[in-house]
Structures
1.
Amino acid sequence: MTSNEIRQRFLTFFEKRGHAIIPSASLVPENDPSVLFNTAGMQPLVPYLLGEKHPQGTRLADVQKCVRTNDIDEVGDNTHLTFFEMLGNWSLGDYWKSESINWSYELLTSKEEGFGLDPQRLYVTCFEGDENAPRDEESATIWKEIFEKNGVTGERIYFRPANKNWWSAGPNGPCGPDTEMFYDLTGNITEGMSLEQYLKADDEQKVVEIWNNVFMEFLSKDGKVVGKLENKNVDTGAGFERMIAVVQGKSSVFETDIFSDLIKNTKNLTGSLKNQRIIADHIRTAVFMIVDGVSPSNTDRGYILRRLLRRAVLKTDKRKLDNQEISSLVNIISDKYEASYPEIKQNLTSVTQKIEEEVNKFTKTLEDGIKQFEKGIDPFVLFTTYGFPIEITKELAKERGTVIDEEKFNEEFKKHQELSRAGSEQKFKGGLAGTGEVETKYHTATHLLHQALRDVLGESVQQKGSNITTERLRFDFAFERKMTDEEKKKVEDIVNEKIQLNLPVKKEVMKKEEAEKTGALHFFGEKYPDEVNVYYIGDSLDSAYSKEFCGGPHVENTGVLGRFKIAKEEAVSAGVRRIKAVLE
């Protein structure tokens, strides 16, 4: 059975049993600020699990896109992925445990309508009970009857604690006990197992979880059950990729038809099987993120995307992905998912370009940083001087079997901050407090902030003054109202994007009239000499992101600045606002 056939067989099975088939929600949660991505099939349906009426009724089924990165270091083994799909069927105050468990068994084992798995290789767990809810004897009894009816013998039902058999999307919301189904991948265990044997087989990935039925009848607050829901709901889920592996008789999700063509292509990029899997996983996740509106950045979802693409590059033998290689991988993903997610093919060009742009930017930073790393340069120096993120240094060290002394790094960073704060706050023309390393960084960051404000708020923004210390920058500008949180975040994102691009900072000495024609920003009305310094940030004066009349000094490239964060935005006087910002 192909992956597309498995997907369709699942949907048809529940459609025949009265379930409306609903499309996958976006990876980006619509009204849930508690998470960056949908991490489970239930998340988009939480309002309906809490009692809101779903327009398509009380029985639903779907295949939901999900992203989880908490186990990112495990990606590359047989089961862990960052992007995955969840098969799910739902009862919103409709059927309960008996129908749910019986249908799950039927779907898994039926050769006519289901996946045709061997019932003799099936094992289940149930909730053992605690202070929140009693032992789930009802589910265990249903399973016992099913096994007896179908001639499945031996010990197969195990009671497990809440950390194994209790499900909730978070500390607040619907929750309840679950029963989970596990499948023996070896085919050698046919007479059942003791609990100890089962736990050992689970640890060794000889048995894997393939289905999970959650019986949501409770409501939690701060992790504690505070009452019962108005309706009893059933939330079932199965990792699609893991199910494909089991149905296709593969020992790893990466051996299934979902990944086979991708893995063939990654063999050209690295000789390491684990790294081939990581590259395939991360690029696939990146494609789905971008299609759902995520762009690389230094914060939140954009940072997760950026980190995945960086890791993919790091896992190649040559520490590089060229445009042709990227295009090939994206095309494979597009073709594989065309039937289920045609939007990938519809946005193929823009998705490919975004990945290429991000990878190419990172490659420039990486080449220089790796050279210094190979020389044994201290991680703190790599970070402060070359703008090389500590997480990448850790990845490189791990590959070589060494460990970065993070405690030492943190101590050096703290000492660096304390030395910076020791400088006295002074003012002089141009707003620069000194010519030390930290003040120089802040001065360049001020130029980026000025242009980013104009990008977000419009060209009416004009500098009204600035002041720089070793602790922060302060920038006053003409603007009539308070900035919104969204506007401040946009400004931060733009500045951090330009920092990440590692743009060169250059100077040209020009006649004042000629300098004005370039569009370089300056204090209007202020008198300047016949020749002025124009500092610009970018590859050329014409294409520069920022250009200003300035006395300097500046850093050589933006990559050394660190992370820019707006600490405060306030009024100074009528029509003048003030931003205080820090580099972290």
2.
Amino acid sequence: MLSTGRYEPEYTQKLERVNSEINNVKKIHKEIFEINILNNNGIVVASTDKAYVGYNRSNDALFLKGKEGLYIRDIHISKTSGNPDMDIVSPVLLNGEFLGVINIDLKTEELFKITLDRTGLGETGEAYLVNKDKYMISPSRFNEDVILKQKVDTENVKRCLLHKGKEHIPELEEKEIAVFPDYRGITVLGTHQYIPQMQWCLLAEIDEKEALAPLAKLKLIFSIVMFSVLIIAWLIGIFVSRLITKPIHNLHKGSEIIGSGNLDYKVGTEAKDEIGRLSRAFDRMTESLKHKTTSIDRLNKEIAERKKAEAALRESEAKYSSMINDVLNSSGVGIFILDSEFKVVWVNRTLETFFDLQRSEVIGKDKREIICERIRYVFEEPEKFAETVFSTYDDNTYIERFECHVLAKDKCKERWLEHTSNPIKSGFYTGGRIELYVDITERKKVEEELREAMSIKSQFTSMVSHELRTPLTAIKEGIAIVLDGSAGKINEDQKDFLSTAKRNVDRLHRLINDVLDFTKLESGKAEFRMEENDINEIIEEIVKTQKAVAGGSGLYLKTNLSPDIEKIRFDSDKIAQVLTNLINNAIKFTTRGGITVTSGIDVEGKAVRVQVEDTGTGIKKENLSRLFVEFQQVGSDKYRKPGGTGLGLAICRQIIEGHGGIIRAESEQGRGSKFIFTLPIKPEG
């Protein structure tokens, strides 16, 4: 602005921008009272106070100082506000050419907040500033209206001003603490810090009485302590003298009692001096004498009581050991305990029953020999079982559960067992293992019955679907013949009725196909043609087919596909079925905007991620978990009408999980939904 002539077209715009900037700066920095910008003639051209615009300040000392360079005016009383403030003036140069100055008028409240913080200064301490002329320029704790009025010509100020012009002398950098009268005439303890940039002195002072009060208290405490020490020393002397004479008296008295025949009397003390050692020796002598005179009957009684206690302990151990064995033997779990060399330490009766063997046949033998040789006829595939179990033993880790098929010796009775093996990490057999076998024969029977029931369900569904398809096809063709006029003319009401019937027949036909697909997927009979395919090509093909449907509804249908995806193995027909279902659902519940299909690689780089996102009505949070379950009722709200999930999304879930992937939904009511599924880049198998 200062480089632009006043009558140039852009001058007004620049002036407005400058006024806006300086007003914003004033709002942000509360310590700024006023900002003025003067041109090279000393005329105020911009100001936070519009009343000053146009003033001629060419003879103002601030303008003259500002032309020469950066100038900071000491604290003074403002003519405008009547409060203390500071001025900072700086020249404005462009390529070395003087264009004007900027003058910032600063409030001193923030500075005074620092000096008024009297934390740690007690009841009489204060910190304040004095300028080079020895006048206070910050508030006083004791007097009012002192700024630039109260002169401080104390010893503290004189010592501080000695630093002026001598900041480079190291000896003067040491902080001085002295006692002197302050500006009130009261003796204080104080120190100072010289601020060379402003030629100010920062003074900190506290009344001498308050400062030295702890020393007087310390003197009193010291006197009390010294007096107490003398008293305690006198008492200790009395106590020590008695401590020395009392054991001698007790020893003499004890010797008389023992001499009278009381061998149980003790005179020994814990003292480590000669008297203490003599008293303990006296006790040992009387104890030895007592043992020698103890009767044979009492000695025999003690021996008998000790033997009785030992017998009771053995009986208790046998009882509890028997109880533990009974619990382990009566449990329905077969147990093998092996030591660190895989030798059998213990088996319970349940395991004997499971494997049709005797405990005496296996205790102390290598478990691997028992599996591979002794019980070879028990397992249908003993080598495979042994390889599965013992290949993991070297790791000393837990072995996950797996099932084994066991036959009795006569091969007439069979059972299924579930096997687990855990390391023993403490106790007698540390480094060994404990193996558990649970009978799951009944569970296997139930699973087999369930599989048979599923097979019957699948056969029944296929039969019913076939029986329904034939008449439905005939009905559909008959309606088509009537609608195209081949069977004669029909009126509009009849045509509407037949059109509705045709749509219901089509819907029933689709439902039958969905039921057949779901039954196959649920029973595990659906076949997946796993081939290498380009997921982006499948997406483009389905989107191209569905654009006509979306366009007819006034919606857009677009893609955002990642070019970094390589071909992966999946069933293209079934994934196309999933995409078609998801896009059709999106079109159904979207009235504005459209649908975007996105592809990419997940963050771990292990799967391809496909997302179908719409701008439709959205789904309630509590309904998200039920979307992929067949025939679930979904409640209504202001965005969505009541309805059910049908089989479409349930089939999608079965297909994606059949590929080893995951499908889920995210939604926010009124802002659309996202259906996301993943396909592994390297599927198992």
